[in-house]
Amino acid sequence: MKFDMGSQTLSTLIKATQGSSGDLGTLIKQLIAAAQPLEGKFNGAGKAAFDSFKSQSDQITADLDSALNAILGGQSGMNDSFVTGDTEMSDTARSTMGAANFDAARFSGR
Hints:
Blueprint: H1 9-35, H2 44-99
């Protein structure tokens, strides 16, 4: 199995997730504003559910934002690991090549 990921893949993913985080907050605020005209139109269980949603909307927004921030933290950590691994692999390869005796590997007939 081969795993091949471009050097900018995680950076691009992080930028997209950051954009989605802002978009999600905006969408929740729009949902709350769109539901505002419905206030007072429900009775019984519907009213209780609507009131619960409205009262918890700030907490829902904060929870979703917190979850996306945790995802961003994970993506950032993965990006750091991949960059460090790539650099270390390159440094190790250069070091090993510098210590290798390439002349001993030449096969020349005399």
